[in-house]
Design goal:
Layout (H helix, E strand, L loop, with lengths): L17 H8 L1 H4 L5 H12 L5 H14 L3 H13 L12 E4 L11 H10 L4 E5 L25 H11 L1 E5 H4 L2 H12 L4 H5 L10 E6 L4 H14 L6 E7 L13 E9 L2 E9 L19 H8 L7 H4 L4 H26 L11 H13 L8 H13 L1
Helix pairs in contact: 1-4, 3-5, 4-9, 5-11, 14-15
Length: 391
């Protein structure tokens, strides 16, 4: 049975989407994967209502059974980006922070890092889907504890960013078709290409974007997808960090050393580098028991306690090992972000050479210690310097 060859693609309004399902499902010898352009057209067609729910669900299942290719994932990402409202890319965000995994029992300490960056002038956009994995504790459920506001469209998100430098946007408010796709893969009971692709949208074209994964092999997939999207000019210039997140979420685990791949793209030049954020809690045990019951209000408490390990109020609700792990998660995650900011600016605070990992760890500790200050915090000085250089 010969494989279906290249298809003549038309607009989403006129294309016969049965041809894509036939290409994916024409038997063991006759089927093939979708090309980048075909996958992009499939998503755009579904978003516009021209590809049906049955067709989209069939395509998602067929891709999943065989294993999604780089072109298929990258094409779906491109289709999602093409389905964005045209004003999302105009928000002038510094850091794109997808938060789709949630955590099984811990609080999202990453919110304290994002809040710190926002307090010191960096514009951060968080986006996620709290319905995708309802059994987990998602970032969205903890926003109120730190007064992080939501944006439901580009205009409201712009207003929140102008005031707070940080905003959270639901995936379905970014691209409504993501809600439809999530409902489909929940009905199927399978992971789908959408769960990988949603993390890669970078709706505001931020120069720094974070990508976490949990399952082995997804680091290589994310790397190749990023390279493909840079090569096809779907991504603007910037740096994409790819790492195994704590319980899959976009936060570093301080109990292990973490390899971070950085895909850097500018015009036709795409490079890949890597660095390792070392363990900050070598030989550390404990801290897991009881974390599932922690209130999100602890995020605010940890934020305002200048000496967490000496806080009587904090010790009433968290063990010492919990506090140590939370604080170290903050430092490890902030270390990675500082290394990316340094790479983006190609300059560092008070240094002529790029930051080493050790210097970034020390700088992260200073930034966290001086989180209440705009004069003593190195991040504020860095941000001011960057803005002056941009002018």
């Amino acid at each position: 049975m010969p494989k279906i060859g290249a298809l003549t693609l038309t607009s989403a309004e006129t294309f016969d989407f049965r041809l894509l399902i036939k290409a994916l499902g024409k038997g063991e010898k006759g089927s093939r994967s979708l090309t980048f352009a075909e996958a992009s057209l499939l998503l755009e067609g579904f978003a516009l209502g021209h590809a049906t729910r049955v067709q989209m669900a069939s395509a998602m299942m067929l891709m999943r059974v065989r294993g999604e290719t780089v072109d298929e994932v990258a094409g779906i990402v491109a289709g999602l980006r093409h389905s964005l409202h045209r004003d999302w890319p105009s928000l002038a965000v510094d850091i794109d922070w997808p938060v789709y995994a949630g955590k099984r029992e811990q609080l999202p300490w990453l919110l304290l890092v994002a809040s710190l960056l926002a307090k010191q002038g960096f514009r951060v956009m968080l986006h996620g889907d709290s319905q995708a994995l309802p059994h987990r504790r998602h970032v969205e459920s903890c926003l109120d504890a730190l007064n992080i506001r939501c944006g439901t469209n580009p205009q409201s998100a712009a207003q929140v960013l102008a005031s707070d430098n940080i905003v959270y946007v639901r995936a379905g408010d970014l691209v409504p078709v993501l809600d439809d796709c999530r409902q489909l893969h929940q009905e199927l009971g399978l992971r789908s290409v959408i769960q990988t692709a949603a993390r890669c949208i970078n709706p505001s074209n931020a120069p720094i974007s974070l990508r976490s994964y949990f399952h082995p092999g997804l680091d290589d997939l994310h790397q190749q997808v990023s390279e493909t999207l840079f090569a096809k000019n779907e991504y603007s210039a910037g740096h994409i960090a790819i790492f195994k997140g704590l319980q899959g979420e976009t936060e570093f685990n301080p109990r292990v050393s973490t390899l971070m791949k950085v895909v850097s793209g500018q015009a036709a030049n795409v490079t890949v580098s890597s660095l390792t954020v070392p363990t900050l809690l070598a030989g550390f045990f404990g801290a897991k028991v009881g974390q599932a019951d922690l209130s999100s209000d602890i995020l605010a408490l940890l934020w305002r306690e200048s000496q967490p390990l000496e806080s009587t109020e904090l010790s009433r609700v968290m063990s010492r090992t919990m506090i140590e792990q939370a604080s170290s998660s903050i430092i490890a995650t902030l270390t990675a972000v500082l290394l990316l900011l340094n790479q983006q600016s190609n300059n560092s605070v008070g240094l002529q050479q790029p930051l080493t990992v050790e210097q970034a760890i020390n700088l992260s500790q200073q930034c966290w210690q001086h989180r209440f200050s705009h004069t003593n915090n190195p991040l504020a000085q860095w941000h001011k310097k960057e803005r002056l250089c941009a002018v």
